[in-house]
Design goal:
Number of helices: 9
Strand order of the largest sheet: 6-7-8-3-9-10
Strand content: 25-35%
Radius of gyration: 19 Å
Largest sheet: 6 strands, mixed
Distance between the termini: 43 Å
Length: 247
């Protein structure tokens, strides 16, 4: 059974009297335990695809199932969680309060939510910051907390939207390690503009362009498909941006 299966997704929006096809016949099948990258230039349709795959946006056509369940069903949505690009952290609450709040929303009692918060804080090296106000955290610690809030519910499918955006190289590598750990118990869908991040972390990668899937495969398969030696050049060719390839 696939962790996520999207078939024939379509989504259009009206803009200035025109109909814009944001997503045009996108299909994805993601395995359990897989780290799956979703890449594309700005406006390629990634965000709209993720919103449909997480039940935040209804498609105009097509279907999404998570572990065989329709994404429109509440019990299916509870099997997944999201760490958004703009973190959902409540800045006036402490690290501990943010974690407990999410755990309780998903039905944990006070004793269980406390244990879960302490467990996640330990994994993310946030134990000594549990009582700190979240809004005072550095960018790297804020990202860790956001991911912690996404996984405290023990989801079977996690969406990480630009999880290392703006972080220094050490903080980024620390999160890479933890993302690999997450994949031991959940499928991970990763969107990122850092191509080296996708190449380092992802088992497979889908490249989107113009609302469509241009190609899906491992980083090496995409390089072979594009005829390029580097993943960055492969990405540029697959997205139709060949003019920026250094010859």
């Amino acid at each position: 059974m696939y962790a996520l299966k999207a078939e024939g997704l379509h989504k259009s929006f009206k803009s200035g009297g025109r109909i814009i096809k944001a997503v045009d016949d996108v299909s994805l099948a993601i395995e359990e335990g897989e780290i799956f990258g979703l890449l594309g230039m700005n406006g390629a349709g990634k965000s709209t695809t993720v919103k449909m795959c997480t039940g935040l946006l209804a498609p105009d056509g097509g279907s999404v199932t998570v572990f065989g369940g329709d994404i429109a069903l509440s019990e299916t949505k509870r099997m997944l969680n999201v760490s958004p690009q703009e973190t959902a952290v409540a800045p006036m609450l402490s690290v501990y309060e943010n974690l407990v709040f999410i755990a309780e929303i998903y039905g944990a009692d006070k004793a269980t939510s406390k244990l879960q918060a302490e467990e996640i804080a330990a994994k993310l090296k946030l134990t000594d910051r549990l009582n700190d106000r979240a809004g005072k955290l550095s960018g790297g610690l804020m990202r860790r907390l956001s991911i912690g809030m996404a996984i405290i519910t023990k989801p079977r499918l996690v969406f990480l939207d630009e999880p290392t955006l703006g972080l220094d190289v050490v903080s980024r590598r620390e999160l890479w390690k933890y993302i690999r750990e997450i994949s031991g118990s959940a499928a991970v869908v990763l969107t990122t503009h850092y191509l080296e991040e996708a190449e380092a972390l992802c088992n497979r990668i889908a490249v989107m362009a113009g609302g469509k899937i241009a190609a899906i495969g491992t980083a090496d398969e995409l390089k072979k498909l594009s005829g390029e030696d580097t993943f960055e050049n492969a990405f540029l060719r697959l997205t139709g941006e060949e003019e920026y390839i250094d010859e």
